[in-house]
Write a structure and sequence with these properties.
358 residues, alpha/beta, TIM Barrel, eight-stranded parallel beta sheet, two-stranded antiparallel ribbon, 14% strand, globular
Length: 358
């Protein structure tokens, strides 16, 4: 199969904008010639990433009890230990969700995307990108008795995802879609840094990989975003090296039951830009026809920092694009427009292709 994604830059998802239209307009202007797809910015309640699933999906379910509320004085969690804690109610053995609010938002945002593309604001060849959390990330609030409750919730979530992916691809032409599975809690679970999860982290990642992506038509572009999160700090956990991300990526490519078009692997903190041991596992990456994006564009050290990380990574992988470590809707800087302008400037000035020798 010919590789379907070749751009130099990936926009992971969240953008520092106050509305879908603003996000799409500004992203098209700054990045339209650098990317293959545009996300809608994940604005409003979705800026909290899986906080959206906690509040709009999990909490309202009649089979779920809220065991503990956040201790944050504002009511908005400031870190992972301040998120609400949920449990499946006693006697409940099955959960069901009728719809996924995130899919409603995607369909609504696509209408804006299409209008802007028809008007020439968005380049004709770009797709509409939708980021969806994987089960462990979406259901991270089941901390009261994770071993008991998570399997019940996960079965219901997979059933929901299967139905809602069909609804999404009925509402949006598959040839216009790029779907990205977002994983932060999955990676931390496998690294064994989540205090509330028991054994079985690899299966919590691998099982859904073998089942969920098969529901997507092959015309839909598919990607996996693998990182360690930015809630509240970047990153939530810094790995020793990229071994876990490479192992997860290889499994996803081999077991998704359909083509994988891109892989996003988060990079290190800036002080490890020249740490060869961090990047060395990339020699074992087997991406097939997927485009590899390394999350090595950081909001703190600009063009020079990106060049250092590109040069180090190039010792172990010959062909890759770049991206922010994670989404950058919550990155430092009060002016979202300037944040996006700076992101585009750094990627262009860094000359990634020249630095890596491509």
């Amino acid at each position: 199969m010919v590789r379907r994604v070749n751009s130099e830059l990936l926009l992971v998802g969240s953008l520092p904008a106050d509305s879908t239209e603003t996000a799409l307009r500004e992203a098209a202007g700054f990045f339209g010639d650098l990317v293959f797809a545009l996300p809608d910015g994940e604005t409003g309640p979705r800026a909290a990433w899986v906080g959206y699933e906690r509040e709009r999906l999990v909490r309202p379910n009649e089979g779920v009890a809220t065991v503990e509320e956040t201790e944050s004085p504002t009511g908005i969690p400031r870190h992972a230990y301040e998120t609400p804690v949920f449990a499946v109610k006693p006697g409940v053995t099955e959960l069901r969700w009728e719809s996924w609010p995130r899919i409603d938002d995607a369909i609504e945002s696509y209408a804006v995307f299409r209008e802007l593309r028809d008007a020439g604001v968005i380049p004709a060849g770009l797709r509409f990108q939708v980021g969806l959390p994987f089960p462990s990330s979406a259901l991270n609030g089941f901390k009261a008795d994770f071993a008991r409750d998570y399997p019940v919730a996960e079965r219901a979530f997979e059933d929901l995802a299967a139905r809602e992916l069909r609804r999404l691809t009925a509402a949006i032409p598959p040839g216009d879609l790029a779907i990205q599975w977002d994983m932060a809690y999955e990676t931390q679970d496998i690294e064994r840094v989540l205090a509330w999860t028991p054994e079985g982290a690899w299966e919590r990642f691998a099982g859904p990989v073998t089942r969920l992506s098969r529901h997507l038509p092959e015309e839909v572009l598919l990607g996996y975003h693998l990182c360690y999160g930015t809630f509240p700090e970047w990153p939530m956990y810094e790995a020793r090296d990229m071994e876990v991300l490479v192992r997860m990526a290889n499994f996803a490519v081999a077991n998704s039951g359909r083509p994988v078009d891109w892989l996003h692997l988060a990079g290190p903190r800036y002080l490890r830009s020249e740490d060869r041991t961090f990047f060395r596992p990339l020699v074992d990456l087997e991406p097939g026809d997927a485009r590899v994006y390394l999350g090595i564009v950081l909001p703190i050290d600009g063009t020079a920092g990106l060049r250092r990380r590109v040069a180090t990574a190039s010792r172990y992988i010959g062909d890759f694009g770049v991206a922010m470590y994670c989404g950058f809707g919550r990155q430092p800087g009060a002016d979202g427009t300037e944040t996006m302008r700076e992101h585009a400037r750094v990627v262009r000035e860094a000359g990634v292709r020249e630095v890596r020798g491509g």
